[in-house]
Task: structure prediction
Amino acid sequence: MPDLLADLAAIVGAGHVLTLPQDTAPYTLDYRRRYQGQPLAVVLPGSTAEVAALLRLCQHQQVAVVPQGGNTSTCGAATPDNTGRQLVIAMQRINRLRAIDTANNSITVEAGMTLAVLQQLAVEAGRLFPLSLASEGSCQIGGNLSTNAGGLAVLRYGTMRELTLGLEVVLPDGRVLHQLSGLRKDTSGLDVKQLFIGAEGQLGLITAATLKLFPLPGAHATAWLGVDSSQAAINLLSALRQAFGDRLTTFEIMSQPCQQLLEKYHPGQLPFIQPWAVLAELSDSGDSHHLQQLLVDWLATQNLPDGVLAHSEADRQQLWQLREAMSETQKRDGPSIKHDIGLPSSAIPAFLEQCATALSRAFPTVRIIAFGHAGDGNLHYNISYTRPDNAHLFEDEDSVNAIVYDLVYRHQGTLAAEHGIGQLKGHWLQRYQDPTALQLMRGIKQLLDPLGLMNPGKWLSPP
Ligand SMILES: Cc1cc2nc3c(=O)[nH]c(=O)nc-3n(C[C@H](O)[C@H](O)[C@H](O)COP(=O)(O)OP(=O)(O)OC[C@H]3O[C@@H](n4cnc5c(N)ncnc54)[C@H](O)[C@@H]3O)c2cc1C
Result:
């Protein structure tokens, strides 16, 4: 062990090998405080060459590696186990801007850069990098890629997979995959970079990426709308798409219990409470006043029960803050069993109705908090019990999950639309994923990481 620590220090510098509990603590507990590990050490490399040397050493010494970005995973994907034998490689020092090409609308950055810094660099160049998450101040580009992150603008711009043009990745044996291309079309063989997007650090360590930029939208029209049912919300989504095409950037829904929670913790800020609330936003490069007028005129033809429009940037921010307060508000209200499911948008109403019926039959005090990015079919579907039963909530977690996931898959959905699999959902993935797809994934893992050293204990590890 002392030899290994000395070898690590020789690569990254002694000051970048952390072993004291007070130094390693921020890297060993996950965001939701559900998983706590104990690492061999935490190392902070400063370059791709150092990452390559680290992985070569780990391969040679058969040391397991846990890549870590901003440690905002909500499923324990970046937490080491508690054997004291896994090495956390934390990426925050590899965080430089490598190149920006405004004519090609692309930017190349290192994996340890936070998402917020990347967004700001894009704005300074007069461009938009559209990925937007509530964790953007802490999460890193490498983490966003490894979880195929989505967020508030997936409806228009897609997830991290769609935003990626090229990658630089260090493979488990220390070889470096150099594919930092800014090309939008390339038919020269298989697109191998795709393997590392959504792989949760189990196939290699991403050190840099070339990502798409977009024109910075100058105009926004944002509305908070009330509708009578989830079906009415999905009908509204369809009608908005038809009327405004790509200008529809965001379409978020919140059930009535969500609105009641917001009212409880942010009294007086909600415009109204309706069976369902929708936050819809249009954007384009024209003039806000014109875009808002188009939306007002269109809404006047829709006969909705309630609605308010943002007339200024301050109004718009206020509406967005309400939506973004949802996760934190629910956290304040007590624990819940969380699901980040994905469904075809058209299946959302039937799923919601059937799942509520099945859950209330099995658990009479159930409370369902459903909200999310309905525009791309991604819902946060969080379950708690009314007090005092909530103290026993997690005793029923497996039964609750089985009801939710059975119905999700019956509607051709997914159990992980956003937050990944990590340690939390590995056994559920084995149950619901297509067996041929799982076989292929395991074959790729075997090819790239035959010793199973990259992020072991997560979903690609042998059962
Ligand atoms: C308040 C809050 C809101 C959130 N909202 C959203 C949301 O809207 N949409 C969404 O998609 N997610 C959301 N998340 C989840 C989380 O922020 C994302 O999954 C994010 O992409 C993780 O980035 P990270 O840098 O924190 O990665 P980490 O948590 O550090 O790691 C996540 C996974 O990526 C791997 N990894 C990290 N860096 C690398 C690298 N350089 N190379 C290889 N593997 C690596 C890790 O091993 C781990 O498996 C939210 C989380 C919080 C706490």
Remarks:
- Residues 115 and 136 are 5 Å apart (CA to CA).
- The chain has four domains: 2-90, 97-215, 219-332, 340-431.
- The first strand starts at residue 17 and ends at 18.
- The first helix runs from residue 2 to 12.
